[in-house]
Amino acid sequence: MKIGVTGATGQLGRLVVDKLKAKVAAESIVALVRTPEKAADLGVEARVFDYTQPENLVAALQGVDKLLLISGNEIGQRLPQHKAVIEAAKQAGVKQIFYTSILHADTSSLELAGEHIATESAIKASGLVYTILRNGWYTENYTGSAKGAVGAGAFIGCAGDGKIASAARVDCAEGAAVILTGEGHENKIYELAGDEAYTLAELAAEISLQTGKNIPYNNLTETQYADILKSFGLPEGVANMLADSDTGASRGGLFDNTKKLSALIGRPTTPLAKVLADALV
Ligand SMILES: NC(=O)c1ccc[n+]([C@@H]2O[C@H](COP(=O)([O-])OP(=O)(O)OC[C@H]3O[C@@H](n4cnc5c(N)ncnc54)[C@H](OP(=O)(O)O)[C@@H]3O)[C@@H](O)[C@H]2O)c1
User: Fold this and answer.
1) Whether the predicted model's global pTM rises above the 0.85 cut
2) How far is CA 171 from the centre of its chain?
3) 13 alpha carbon – ligand 1 mean position (Å)
4) Is the beta carbon of 157 within 6 A of some atom in ligand 1?
5) Which of 3, 117, 153, 197 has its CA 20 to 30 A from that of 94?
6) For residues 67 and 30, is the Cβ–Cβ distance under 8 A?
7) Residue bearing the CA closest to ligand 1, atom 21
């Protein structure tokens, strides 16, 4: 039984490979990556795999029984890329495909959800046995801004009072490894969020607590927030997407209280305070 992991040199993919190695022999894991040299430290077989080169994908999937398709990061280009992988998986005889989607993809108001729900539909239409991992927001998306917020004297966003049930990447990775190596996940869709939900004001309060400084949460309009992100040098598309996601969060788009992820990994998800403490080091 071989398990293939795309995006294995990415932040989530590395953690998935690591968690898989704790469960199955390294020989049964295949890292499907754009740059094999970057995969040298993973300790598993690495094969060249670029979503934009459909002609090479079928050969790279030979012998792979289970395939984790980690969604790409080129927003706006992802649907054709993902479709190429799905088609190749079918042709190569992959037995089950697993896909990292977005929380509540079918009802989400986040713009980001569009490519994910379209990919989910393509997977279902392919006839492949599938499992959809609808990952919640990574906690690191917000804690990554903590040091900057301390420097600036405020945490900014436009998520209002929206509760965010984020999960650390490592928890999402462990959930993926459990699903990839477990049974009974055929044709299932899982909402995988963190146990704990917080507002950005509560996050700012935690930053204040951990640093001993007064870091309030400054809630902006979506346009104000996007403009500030652009002034930091973020590309316009990324800034707009982040601001749109915060607006989605203000409407509950990043909230979920089913605790499915902790049930799968058999422990509570990593607390916000811990992920934040790691980010503030
Ligand atoms: N839930 C969330 O909060 C959240 C946040 C951000 C992103 N995401 C989604 O979750 C995915 C994984 O997150 P992450 O933090 O691990 O992102 P990441 O570090 O940016 O990793 C993305 C991975 O996708 C690979 N990739 C991109 N384009 C590709 C292509 N054309 N062909 C093959 N591989 C390609 C990258 O390859 P290289 O290693 O060669 O660059 C990288 O390994 C992201 O790509 C995105 O779809 C989710």
Assistant:
1) yes
2) 10
3) 8
4) no
5) 117
6) no
7) 10
Helical ranges in the chain per DSSP H: 11-21, 54-60, 78-92, 113-126, 139-143, 146-152, 169-181, 200-211, 222-231, 236-250, 260-265, 272-280
Q: What is the pLDDT of residues 221-263, one digit of tens each?
A: 999 999 999 999 999 999 999 999 999 999 999 999 999 999 9
Q: Ligand 1 centre and the CA of 71: distance in Å?
A: 6
Six token digits for residue 195: 């146990």
The answer to whether the Cα torsion of 56, 60, 61, 66 is positive or negative is: negative
Residue of 70, 81, 172 best suited for mutating to test ligand 1, as the one with most atoms within 8 Å of CB:
70
Instruction: Check: CB of residue 167 under 8 Å from CB of residue 236.
Output: no
How far away, in angstroms, is 153 Cα from ligand 1 center? 31
Using CA positions, which residue lies closest to atom 28 of ligand 1? Answer: 72
Q: How confident is the model at residue 80 (pLDDT cuts 50, 70, 90)?
A: very high
pLDDT-derived band at 24, boundaries 50, 70, 90: very high
- Minimum-distance ligand 1 atom for the alpha carbon of 138: 3
pLDDT for the residue numbered 180: 98
Instruction: Name the one residue in this structure whose structure tokens are 């799968």.
Output: 264
Give CA 235 to chain center in angstroms: 20
For residue 217, how far is its CA from the centre of ligand 1 (angstroms)? Answer: 29
pLDDT tens for 109-129 read 999 999 999 999 999 999 999
Q: Give the residue from 241, 22, 235, 11 showing the smallest Cα distance to 114.
A: 241
The angle, 0 to 180 degrees and rounded to 10, between the axes of the packed helices 200-211 and 272-280 is 50
Q: What is the mean pLDDT of residues 152-158?
A: 98
Ligand 1 mean position, distance from CA 216 (Å): 31
Nearest CA to ligand 1 atom 3: 137
